[in-house]
């Protein structure tokens, strides 16, 4: 058993340029039936219906609030993106709108409404996850991490089955509530694979969690496969959650794009410290295969003993 007593999560965003091929969704879609019904029931038709209670966080181009519906008292998270934000952020907003309109899964954060404003701002009314992100949750045991992992895998299985690659799996994009339900969030750099051979080679997301073939596809699998890239990011996330810090960095080391790329491409994948079980080590090894062709798929990982042994 391991207890994480201190968590160190440096700023690892280090964004890379967005690709022109990802600029906007190809066509609008309605919200999924469950989300549309919830929005209608809650009456979240305008921002005036929502009372801001607390600022949850600030990001590039917007702010996230905890809000309460004035009539029903339901609690939501309100993600408000400013209309005058950077064009790259604006493209991410359009992309996230497209993805959220397609998704309806208990393992993906639910979008109850999307409210374009006359000012040019865009408001997302989202499911409120009251425990924040996995960056702030202590992991008391392998069994707890196994249950977390299984939920994330179910979320990725849903997304991948709908031809959606997330491209930015990391602890801060995995939300959790007081019931320890874990859900995937933040689809600003995700991509819908509309065709079997649709390219997925743009450098978007958080480079610290990118797989080796994202930087050098010829050496590590022949091409960049977004589905396999999500699995690498998951493996790296699990190691980080277990050891309490980003595994490619030592204490006090400042991250930069070039050094991280070299460690990912030319160094050995991170390993778990003494005390981790053989099942956990093997699971992480299946995720962190540097050659993407050897990496397990999400559905294969769901049958791995690390996540299938304890389904309580």
Automatic annotation (TrEMBL):
Q: Which domain of life is it from?
A: Eukaryota
Supply the EC number(s).
Answer: 2.7.12.2
Name the record gives this protein: mitogen-activated protein kinase kinase
Which PANTHER family does the protein's record reference? DUAL SPECIFICITY MITOGEN-ACTIVATED PROTEIN KINASE KINASE 5, DUAL SPECIFICITY MITOGEN-ACTIVATED PROTEIN KINASE KINASE 5-RELATED
Location of region: Disordered: 1-28
Keyword entries, A-Z: ATP-binding, Kinase, Nucleotide-binding, Phosphoprotein, Serine/threonine-protein kinase, Transferase
Return the SUPFAM superfamilies for the record: Protein kinase-like (PK-like)
- Into which EC class is this enzyme placed? transferase
Q: Which residues form the Protein kinase domain?
A: 50-307
Pfam families this protein is in?
A: Pkinase (PF00069)
Give an example GO molecular function.
MAP kinase kinase activity
Per the UniProt record, which residue ranges are transmembrane?
none
Q: Where is the composition biased (Basic residues)?
A: 1-10
């Amino acid at each position: 058993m391991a207890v994480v007593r201190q968590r160190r999560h440096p700023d690892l965003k280090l964004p890379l340029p967005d690709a022109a091929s990802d600029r906007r969704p190809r066509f609008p879609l309605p919200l999924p039936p469950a989300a549309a019904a919830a929005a209608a029931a809650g009456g979240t038709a305008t921002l005036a219906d929502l009372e801001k209670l607390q600022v949850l966080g600030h990001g590039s181009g917007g702010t996230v609030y905890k809000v309460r519906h004035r009539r029903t008292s339901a609690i939501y998270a309100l993600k408000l993106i400013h209309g005058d934000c950077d064009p790259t952020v604006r493209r991410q907003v359009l992309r996230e709108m497209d993805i959220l309109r397609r998704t309806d899964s208990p393992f993906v954060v639910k979008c109850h409404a999307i409210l374009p404003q006359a000012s040019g701002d865009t408001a997302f009314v989202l499911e409120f996850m009251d425990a924040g992100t996995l960056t702030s949750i202590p992991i008391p045991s392998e069994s707890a991490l196994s249950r977390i992992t299984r939920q994330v895998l179910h979320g990725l299985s849903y997304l991948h089955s709908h031809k959606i690659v997330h491209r930015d799996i990391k602890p801060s994009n995995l939300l959790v509530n007081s019931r320890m339900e874990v859900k995937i969030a933040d689809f600003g750099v995700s991509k819908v694979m509309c065709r079997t051979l649709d390219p997925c080679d743009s450098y978007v997301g958080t480079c610290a969690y990118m797989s080796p073939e994202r930087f050098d596809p010829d050496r590590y699998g022949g091409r960049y496969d977004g589905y396999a890239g999500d699995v690498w990011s998951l493996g790296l996330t699990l190691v980080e959650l277990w050891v309490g810090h980003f595994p490619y960095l030592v204490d006090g080391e400042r991250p930069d794009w070039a050094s991280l790329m070299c460690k990912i491409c030319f160094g050995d994948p991170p390993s778990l410290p003494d005390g981790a079980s053989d099942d956990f080590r093997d699971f992480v090894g299946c995720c962190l295969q540097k050659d993407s062709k050897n990496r397990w798929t999400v559905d294969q990982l769901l049958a791995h003993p690390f996540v299938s042994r304890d389904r309580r």
